[in-house]
Each structure stands twice: as C-alpha cells, then as structure tokens.
Amino acid sequence: MMISDLLSEFEIERLPLVDSDLCFWRQVDLGRAYAGLLGELIDTTDWRQQEINVYGKAYLQPRLSAWHGDLGYSYSGIRLEPQPWTETLLVLKACIEAVTGHQFNSVLLNYYRDQNDSMGMHSDDETDLGAQPAIASLSLGDERTFLLKHKSRRDLKTFKLPLPEGSLLLMQGNTQTYWRHGINKERYRCRPRINLTFRKVMAVGTGKK
Fold first, then answer.
1. Residue 55 lies in a domain
2. Counting beta carbons within 10 angstroms of the beta carbon of residue 41, is it exposed (0 to 12), middle (13 to 18) or buried (19 or more)?
3. Mind listing the pLDDT tens digit for each residue in 157-204?
4. Within a domain: residue 129?
5. Where do runs of H (alpha helix) occur along the chain?
6. 20 to 30 A Cα–Cα from 71, which one of 7, 24, 77, 205?
C-alpha cells in the first residue's frame, strides 16, 4: 500500500494504521537548505558501524550510526554512550520539538550510504524509552521506503511509506507496542541518506526522567 498520493505538502497527516498513532509531514522548515545539512552531517559526524548479535552470530550493521544526547542507550545488545550535542543538532532538535510539541534529550543518526544499506524490522520498545515513547524521525538525502508491519495481525499488509527529503514522521502512543518498522535494501542506485530519530531516554534502571 503506497500512500504518497494521500499526502499534501507542508500539512500534517495522521496515517491510517490501527493500533498506532502516526503523524507525518512531507516537509518541515529546518531554517537551512536540506542539502547543506546533509553534507555537513556526513562530513562532521563521528560515524561508527556497530556489531550486533543475531541468533548467536555477530554481524556488522548494514549502515553507519552515531548517538548524541544526554544519556546512554541500549538496544539489541549494543550499549551506546552519548557524544555531546553539536550546535547543528541542537538547532534541529529545537525545530523538531517546535513541530511535534514533544521534548527530546537524545538523537540516533543513521547513515545509509547507498542502496546496500538497510535497517531490519524492529520496534523501539526498550525500557530506556519508557511506556508509549514518542520518536520523531527526520529524513535528509535520498528518498527511501519506510516499512511498517503489525506484530500479530497477519491480515494487515505491510504498510509502505516513502520518506522524501525534509520529511518528518512522528511515532507515538502504542505504535511501538504493536508495530515493527524497517528499511529494505534497494535494487536501484540510491544516493546517501541520513535519518535522525529524536527520542527521550529515561535514566537507566530507575524509570525516572
């Protein structure tokens, strides 16, 4: 199911998925040209390729990533210690907070270098994020297709959402409880893309903000 024809530029859309709360903006104003931001982030970010364990085997993630913010974060057996906020990331955080009405203290950057980079299907449901987390996903660079698949409803088809440059997807409410999401490799040539997912991490082991 492709919904690009349902979306009007600059407007907020609520995506029609059961058991979820998803808001989408085809473009948001970041105060700068998207291409300039993309180039700066590619050149100045301390990118790393994390190793994950899947069924007892170690694999390098098929993308590069970086974690910035106030607190550390753990997922898929990986512990991320935060790098400090940069001026650019703080400006972007303020823009995203103004658009969504949520406050964030961390951001995960994922760098998809070409069509061979991807992200497996998963949910951002770690204890560090608390119950019903709000996660704001900003896309810069080449368009890729975001996939959403319900965890238990086999009658629901995989939902496909193109993420153009400058778009923002807000996942909140029960979305992480009932849905997995990811990005597949592509057969056609893709140019670089960076995805920034702003989130609010709780103090580990305390359940406190």
1. no
2. buried
3. 999 999 999 999 999 999 999 999 999 999 999 999 999 999 999 875
4. yes
5. 34-44, 87-100, 175-178
6. 24
